[in-house]
Amino acid sequence: QVQLVESGGGSVQAGDSLRLSCVDSGRSFSTYNMGWFRQAPGKEREFVARMSNVGTTYYADIVKGRFTISRDNAKNTIYLQMNSLKPEDTAVYYCAARRSSLSTYDYWGQGTQVTVSS
Known about the structure:
seven-stranded mixed sheet
């Protein structure tokens, strides 16, 4: 069973950095494809970045070059390093897991708030 818990959110100034973490308490973390999503107030949830179980990464254009996704399978943890933050990055950030690149994201964390002020 996958259980995801995010942490690392907070309130920062534009240009600052944050690193989000997402820990899975299950036993099959290394086999899952992981993703980060975000939802700003009044907007739909949007894709941010993903990493396959073998380390292939993909980013949304709006974060490419600023955000980096990584994973530590020994710690059952997925990270999102966010640099050069902008006010428009303000959102609740969620991590999610899926069994393969062809399946839907079936497991979601509770989210962590990131607020960037100008």
